[in-house]
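Database export, one record per block. Field names are fixed; values are copied verbatim from the stored entry.
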Amino acid sequence: MNQAGQVQSVNVTSEASNDLQKFQLDLVNEEFNELLDAFWEEERAHIIKESLDLIWVTYGLLHLMGVDVDEAFGRLYASNQSKLPFTYKNGKVQKGPNYVPPFLKDL
């Protein structure tokens, strides 16, 4: 994140940190809206670009919060895999009997 000119670490209780997190959340909102616009334009390359921008700024928000994003993502992946075998209901994946929610409180 240093190459992008972002703060390496911040005290999450500081006023400056809260301001940075709010700013980053504004970027998440902006990129999400840009993704929606791209989706309705139905331009594949633009959808890909805006999706990746959304991931980028979301990663930045978590970074500012002091989260080890790679660790968190690994836990989320393992949790999603524990949904297997799954079923669909109303077009949505239903968690299987082996589902274990991700533990993220320590991050």
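Remark 1: The chain is about 55% helix and 5% strand.
Remark 2: The chain has two domains: 2-67, 69-107.
End of record.
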